[in-house]
Here is the input.
Amino acid sequence: MIIYADLHLHSTYSDGRGSPFEIVYTAFERGLNAIAITDHDTFAGVNEAQRLSVQYGILVVPGIEVRTDHGDILVYCNTINVNLPRRVDLLLERAHKEGCLVVPAHPFDIAKLGIGDLIYEYRGWDAIEVWNASSTKGSNYKAIRAAKYLGKPGLANSDAHLVEEIGSAYNTIEVDDLKVDSVLDSIKRGRVKPFYGMPSLKTRVNRLAWSIRRSFKKFWY
Here is the structure.
């Protein structure tokens, strides 16, 4: 079966504006079959999203965006009971030991703390985020070329911090069933096709305004 998946989303448990419920409901409305809530350095939103997702038939893949010593890296697991180190080589080792997938997030978007050319220094990637809907096209094209050079599957994700962004970029994945293990296995085997897209201009302006307000509140409070 073919499913539609957006595997890079942020909730109120880190720097997103939407709650896990709002994310699940919006994903359902937009015809997605699977999502990954990948909050920064925490799995906290995953349990809540999984409880809510049952009634909507949405699969929630446990995910996290880890701020490593060289930049941001997405990790997808079948459990949230994983302790991930921040050193890239150790993270790769621990994640694979736990059966997780490791994917550099927006690798060539330096403003978003991508790992840049260090992507070529490590051979343990399971896939590459080749298209991030909130990154520049130039940095995404570099990621596409890197994935081809390294022979790794590519993922396209919205990196949504507002629910309006969900599904602006997505993947089709050929899976045996709608279960986390099946999704992870299919990604690793390259049974995934990324679809590139960008949010509307209005949504991008709203995202910028949200980021500014959030930064202002953090600075003053």
